[in-house]
């Protein structure tokens, strides 16, 4: 099972590296999601403050999750994840204009 987990990390890293390399100069990459692991909130931070994004949170098995989002400042998005069960999740971020998509894995603690 450890080998599968490591392979998944390598696959995600490779995919992210390829997206960064093939992206245009005005891409919204790189961005970050923190803290990880999290218990109450996760934050998505980007330098692309003028872009509009669509967000989705999925469980490990692909079920779409409900969330509450706040935008405390330009380029910073705060997701309330208190209601999620502990475990791994994915935050999918899509640029509405270019349809460029990023997926971040995070872990919800108790």
TrEMBL record:
It comes from the Bacteria. It holds the Pfam family Por_Secre_tail. Residues 1-21 form the signal peptide. InterPro entries: Secre_tail. Keywords: Signal. Residues 33-100 form the Secretion system C-terminal sorting domain. NCBIfam families: Por_Secre_tail. This is T9SS type A sorting domain-containing protein. It comes from Litoribacter ruber. The lineage of its organism: Bacteria, Pseudomonadati, Bacteroidota, Cytophagia, Cytophagales.
